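F.,

This is the one I mentioned.
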């Protein structure tokens, strides 16, 4: 429903136009659902919308509006409560811009420093809940803004505060909200995953370190054994963290699995969870793996590994027992892949 955009050029403005034509067009129905965070309301990239077009009309979808000045970025736009929110690099700051559904800019406010490494473009998609918008900057600033006005409610230099160790492309994580907490993955040798109070920004808990760099993965929250746990991915590890207190329940060294000699820590795709099983994939010929969690959610073991669906960006979708996504051939090319969820068998591999 939404697409990643690089928002600093003529082409990027065309992409924002494309997004607005599709997403806002679908929201003109009376009961259209919001898309308030990366991957949608269930963080699984599946929309509940019906009546979508099977193919574009001749000449493409109708242009509703376009906008400029949002800054450069790789993030996705989100929609909540009749407002479109999108992040971008404006000067040496990242800024959040809000539009109404007619394309009128409501406000634009800075919220944190840009990445200290090239490219500096904004990376993180905002998360909207109630009257608040949560963002993470490329420099590891976690912030909460008022959804109506853009005024800052709180801001934490989280990477610095928790001694975070980013990967080469720094921070590209999208905020995960779990009950009264905002989840962030600084990694490093002090901690791995931290929880901040979503109302105040104060630290709720910090997990133990796994002594690794962070990846570029937006974590998910699942329930197993009667407990909520956060599934996070760092440069080398997949781990489950108790959402209540930050205890690491299990960890699996992904860097030693699925064509391990190609592992490089450039993990960008959110995990997929279903019925006690976790799926993780990465690009550059480092393949994918499915894990089975124990009934109480404290152990994980490998079910199968795959070297065909090495998804670089954007993630994969699980639907009716099949995984769908694009693999990595090079940075500009990939094939459409379908895997059987239960076995990992390749159902098709098409260019």
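My design for it:
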């Amino acid at each position: 429903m939404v697409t990643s955009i690089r928002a600093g050029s003529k082409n990027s403005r065309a992409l924002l136009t494309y997004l607005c034509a599709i997403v806002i067009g679908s929201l003109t129905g009376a009961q259209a659902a919001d898309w308030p965070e990366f991957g949608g309301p269930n963080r699984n990239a599946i929309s509940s919308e019906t009546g979508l077009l099977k193919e574009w009309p001749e000449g493409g979808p109708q242009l509703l509006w376009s906008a400029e000045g949002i800054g450069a970025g790789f993030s996705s736009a989100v929609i909540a409560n009749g407002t479109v929110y999108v992040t971008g690099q404006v000067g040496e700051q990242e800024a959040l811009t809000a539009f109404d559904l007619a394309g009128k800019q409501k406000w634009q406010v800075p919220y944190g420093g840009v990445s200290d490494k090239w490219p500096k473009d904004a990376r993180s998609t905002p998360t909207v809940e109630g009257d608040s918008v949560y963002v993470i900057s490329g420099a590891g600033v976690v912030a909460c803004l008022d959804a109506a006005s853009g005024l800052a409610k709180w801001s934490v230099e989280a990477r610095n505060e928790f001694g975070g160790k980013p990967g080469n492309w720094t921070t590209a994580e999208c905020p995960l909200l779990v009950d009264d907490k905002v989840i962030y993955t600084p990694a490093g040798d002090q901690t791995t995953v931290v929880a901040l109070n979503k109302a105040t920004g104060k630290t709720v808990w910090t997990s133990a370190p796994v002594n690794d760099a962070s990846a570029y993965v937006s974590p998910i929250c699942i329930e197993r054994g009667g407990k909520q746990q956060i599934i996070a991915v760092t440069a080398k590890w997949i781990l489950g963290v108790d959402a209540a207190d930050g205890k690491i329940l299990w960890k699996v060294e992904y860097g030693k699995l699925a064509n391990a000699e190609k592992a490089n820590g450039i993990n960008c795709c959110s995990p997929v969870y279903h019925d006690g099983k976790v799926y993780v994939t990465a690009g550059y010929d480092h393949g994918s793996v499915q894990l089975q969690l124990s009934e109480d959610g404290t152990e994980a073991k490998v079910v199968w590994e795959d070297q065909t669906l090495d998804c670089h960006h954007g993630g994969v979708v699980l639907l009716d027992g099949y995984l769908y996504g694009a693999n990595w051939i090079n940075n500009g090319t990939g094939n459409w892949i379908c895997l059987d969820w239960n076995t990992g068998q390749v159902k098709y591999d098409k260019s």
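The radius of gyration is 19 Å.

Talk soon.
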